[in-house]
Amino acid sequence: MQRRLIDYLVISLKGLAMGAADAVPGVSGGTIAFISGIYEELISSISNINISLFKTLFSKGLKAFWEQLNGNFLLALTSGILISFISFMKLAKYLLENHPILIWSFFFGLIVASIYFVGKQVSKWSITVIIALIIGAGVAFYITRLPALAANESSLFLFFAGAIAICAMILPGISGSFILIILGAYKTFSNAIHDADIKRFFIFVAGAIVGLLSFSRVLKWLFKHYHNVTLALLAGFIFGSLNKVWPWKKTLTWHTNSKGIETPVLQESVSPFSFDGESQLTLSIILMIIGFLTIFILERVGSKKQ
Question: Is 17 in contact with 84 (CB distance < 8 Å)?
Fold first, then answer.
């Protein structure tokens, strides 16, 4: 596929959006990839990383290897993701601690719009497709209600956490950061970034690479053989994740760390009118609308041929 420099700049911007989304526990970068029109190319490119790719490197040279890898696309996208994810993680932590209702309102509107755009790509609805939609919604909803585990500092655990979380990150509707919270690895990983702990960072990345290469092949096969069912399943994942990003929450249980800092472990969604505190309803609705319109912009950009 012939692309100009401006096309790769747009891909990097989509990567920035994916990284920012993945940094927020409850929002999936896979959703952004899907809406912006690069999801299937991303999955296909990742799944093509195999032994035959390296045979090409040794038999035909670096240029053929890079073309078979779709290297320019992956480089542009991953650069954007990494830059955004690492830089936005600190901002996301601040916003979630100080303005949780407002940031969740924006992402709620974003995800509502995502459901429509993913669902409309299903070319033919059937009983099987509808069942896949329901199953996806049920699984995602169940995940959002899981309590978080205590933090775990083990290197082996961090490796497997990276492998599991990256699978979630490339699934629309399933948040990789939220999976890290459930596993008790979010704080460990965010501390590794904050403290520039290179060892732990690369252990996590190694796990993520293993998980990504394995899971992308499964997704590619599903898209090839069960395209509509897979789309419906992904739309269900996004729909079920709405419970996590609902702005108004009631905390049922808290976790207190060794420093006496409390963090919510189990929460349930409540009406803004019964919320215990300032609901910020007007500003929240405005941010929901902005989030909703953001997806329309991304979809319009994604619909243009690269």
Answer: yes
